[in-house]
Design a protein that fits this description.
Layout: H1 3-19, H2 24-33, H3 38-50, H4 56-69, H5 74-83, H6 88-98, H7 102-114, H8 123-135, H9 140-148
Helix pairs in contact: 2-3, 4-6, 7-9
Length: about 150
C-alpha cells in the first residue's frame, strides 16, 4: 500500500469515529471493504486504541444506552449484541453497572404503546400486546407487571 492510500484510510477512520462510536470489529470490516491490508488495519486500529479513539467499554455503554432509550428489554439487548459480536462478559458488566429497572422499563414501553387504548380487551388483544413486549425483549414476569400496572 502506498503512503497516500494509507493517509486516506486513516482520515476515513477518523471521519467515521467523529460521527459515532465503532467497535474494532466494525472498523476492521469497513477497512477490509476499502481493500486495506491486514497489517495496516491492525496497525491503524492499534494507533486508534492508543489515542483512545476506539474504546470497547465506551462503545458497549453507548450501545446499551441506545437500546434502553428505545425501551428494549434485556433479551433484545443481548440478542442485538450477539449480532454485533460484543463480548458477553463486557456487556453483562455494563448492564449491571447501569442498574436498570427492567420492570419499570417494560411498563414504560407498554404505556407508550397502549396508553390511549381501552382498558378492557379480549384474549386476542392481550396476546397481541404480550407478543409486542416479548419482541421488545421482556420476560413474562416483566410483561405481566407492565400489563397489570395500567
Amino acid at each position: 500500500m502506498d503512503e497516500a492510500l494509507q493517509k486516506k484510510l486513516k482520515n476515513y477512520v477518523l471521519w467515521l469515529l467523529g460521527r459515532q462510536e465503532y467497535s474494532r470489529r466494525e472498523l476492521t470490516q469497513k477497512l477490509q471493504q476499502k481493500e486495506a491490508t491486514p497489517e495496516f488495519i491492525e496497525a491503524l486500529l492499534d494507533w486508534c486504541e492508543e489515542h483512545n479513539f476506539i474504546n470497547e467499554q465506551r462503545y458497549v455503554e453507548g450501545f446499551v444506552r441506545r437500546h434502553i432509550a428505545k425501551k428494549h428489554g434485556l433479551k433484545r439487548i443481548q440478542s442485538e449484541a450477539m449480532g454485533k459480536r460484543i463480548d458477553r462478559a463486557l456487556l453483562e458488566s455494563v448492564i449491571e453497572s447501569f442498574e436498570i429497572d427492567w420492570f419499570g422499563l417494560a411498563q414504560d414501553a407498554y404505556l407508550k404503546k397502549y396508553s390511549n387504548s381501552q382498558d378492557d380487551f379480549d384474549h386476542k388483544e392481550k396476546a397481541k400486546r404480550v407478543r409486542y413486549l416479548m419482541y421488545r425483549g421482556f420476560s413474562y414476569e416483566q410483561i405481566d407487571f407492565a400489563m397489570q400496572a395500567q
